[in-house]
């Protein structure tokens, strides 16, 4: 068992395509959780094939929002993830941010490195860890490595792999409404029973603190709970056949709504007039 | 209240893009329900802007499958829906099939016509009514006229209108997985409480007989049941704000699975080894 998550830092898990030019609601909240105008932010570009461009873009927006320092951590090869200079940046950071790209690149480069150990140590010490798109997918212990977005649930529609493991018992899918990924997430959850699915729309995020999750941004988060399903056909399915499942529970949560990961109960925004 | 649906003919409601060249599983079942090699099929092209092409295509496939007669009913203007020649075709048909296109065209042309009355009379007398894509959307009493497919639930993401009403207490959305329409269907269902949602994938259909629904085809049908939801924010929502809903129930049903519209319970295929 992992230790209590209560002592860990917050997570900001973004469904991709977050606003970087107008109110910057989500990135603004990330900077606030990283210490506001005292924030030292390390931007990890491991996921992207365009690390220079991604680094410049996030340097611009985090600096514009008032962070005291923004450092870009490029890890193009696994060796880079053991580089003393890069480790020093993360050791001093008050917030770490994973860019988008391909989630498998992050795991390939960071897995079993000193950087991986240090990221977990810093998170346990309380710093915020954020990520968008591929940087959101890697947050869980098991992640969706790749998969066809647009089909109904199929056994071969999704490929699972190890994630970075900042959050346990959860599976994250991103660009959720925009890419019609319900089928892909349902399939992944049948392969990983007891895990809760979070389908995060673009320009939308969940902020996780302890067992509490709050939604921020323009879209919604679809919480997919398969814990009370009464039937699925996984045991008799061949590879290209369609899955069946009875009794999946969904909650659609827009800005301000909360969800408790332990009790699996959603709740309305504080101060809401609606019961 | 509408009369008992037990006495009515079957419905074959297809999510669009059904196979017309290989096994033709769905259209084959439609022809079988229309009387097999004795079938007289009327193809209604009201939905499409290309009625000639659609008529030729369905004439080819239904004839190929062995139907005794296939007649095309073109109704480009509302007057056509009162034409004695066209009404005679429907009066003699053992099955009626609505092509795809734009569901609003069907309602505009057929509503309040002699054709509308006759279609309901023939259906009550027991003939099968089928439809694909737009021809599936019109099956219900209230239908999704149009709406943005790819967003999360938004109050303005969907426009509802009157359907043909062959099936009550149900709302149909088509091309479901392929166009990522969960958000659109969830929104429509919040606007039409007590109605059950059927999200039908391409090359997939439900065959409705009495209260019993069976899935056929390559994809799956997503049954969306909002009857046990514990909260939604519809009453306080402005037009461009994201919807919230707690506790939607989903069943994903591939080929051979059944669902009872009265009890709202899914069931596994007969002879299945899985409980």
From TrEMBL, chains A, B:
InterPro entries: Class_I_gatase-like, Peptidase_S51, Peptidase_S51_cyanophycinase. Keywords: Carboxypeptidase, Hydrolase, Protease, Serine protease. One of its GO terms (molecular function) is carboxypeptidase activity. Belongs to the peptidase S51 family. Exopeptidase that catalyzes the hydrolytic cleavage of multi-L-arginyl-poly-L-aspartic acid (cyanophycin; a water-insoluble reserve polymer) into aspartate-arginine dipeptides. It holds the Pfam family Peptidase_S51. It is an enzyme of class 3 (hydrolase). This is Cyanophycinase. CDD domains: GAT1_cyanophycinase. It catalyses: [L-4-(L-arginin-2-N-yl)aspartate](n) + H2O = [L-4-(L-arginin-2-N-yl)aspartate](n-1) + L-4-(L-arginin-2-N-yl)aspartate. Coiled coil: none annotated. Its EC number is 3.4.15.6.
